[in-house]
Specification:
about 250 residues, alpha/beta, five-stranded mixed sheet, 7 helices, about 35% helix
Length: about 250
């Protein structure tokens, strides 16, 4: 039995197949802005699966996905899903569904205490306590959001493509923006992570994921591993529990 696993984020929607033993080889990606019945039919043509599990943070696209897969076994990840961890927060319904999937995989693969840092449109920090429960985290702008904000909210600063700045001391406007965005963003991540680890009072496993993880985590030595499949693995773990219950 194979399941279609979907990570519907703000920028990209990633698809994978998985079963009770792990993620399988087939993958697909659709830009979230382009997600439609037509693009889904094209991407999934010839792909066989027995059920669908979606972790979505885009309500409009979540509704489209639910409608598209009407008639098939379907589950949307939420705080009420079988996640494998509890909550030490007052309002678990406010937690992003991608973060819930990250935490499910984080606990299963890396134990606790642990921290998942998801480098996407936003950069999110999700914390598992020593008891293995979600204890909170932090949300900050992603690196690309910093450059786009400057370009759209100022009269003379240009949009720049993210790359490694040649120096902290930029000799052009574009280099100066890169220094602020890249080095500054990594500094922000380091400081948030330092404070979280201090408050935990433990030595957690720190795992980076998300489309910007390899670039964003560079030089942040507290991050022990980069796991690009963390979210999809969490969706797979939920699928294994949901569809086992339906047998």
């Amino acid at each position: 039995m194979a399941w279609l696993l979907i990570d519907n984020s703000n920028t990209r929607t990633k698809f994978a197949l998985g079963d009770a033993d792990g993620l399988l080889g087939w993958r697909a990606v659709i830009a979230t802005a382009d997600l439609s019945d037509e693009s889904l039919e094209t991407a999934l043509r010839g792909v066989a699966y027995d059920g669908v599990v979606v972790a979505s943070v885009v309500p409009e696209k979540a509704a489209l996905l639910a409608n598209h897969f009407t008639g098939r076994p379907f589950h949307a990840v939420s705080f009420q899903s079988p996640l494998g961890f509890g909550f030490d927060v007052a309002s678990p319904e406010q937690i992003g569904n991608d973060r819930l999937a990250n935490l499910a995989a984080l606990k299963s693969k890396y134990g606790s205490p642990a921290i998942a840092i998801d480098f996407g449109t936003a950069v999110t920090f999700s914390v598992l306590s020593a008891d293995g429960n979600f204890s909170g985290g932090a949300i900050a702008p992603g690196m690309a959001a910093m450059t786009s904000y400057l370009a759209t909210r100022t009269a003379q600063l240009p949009m720049v493509a993210l790359s490694e700045p040649p120096s902290a001391i930029g000799t052009t406007t574009s280099e100066a923006i890169l220094s602020g965005a890249v080095i500054g963003h990594r500094g922000m991540v380091k400081e948030i992570l330092r404070e979280i680890i201090f408050e935990l009072g433990a030595h957690p496993n720190v795992v980076a994921t998300g489309g910007g993880a390899e670039f964003g985590a560079k030089g942040i030595y507290e991050i022990g591993v980069t796991d690009p499949d963390l979210t999809l693995e969490g969706v797979r773990l939920v699928a294994a529990e949901v569809f086992a219950e339906r047998k």
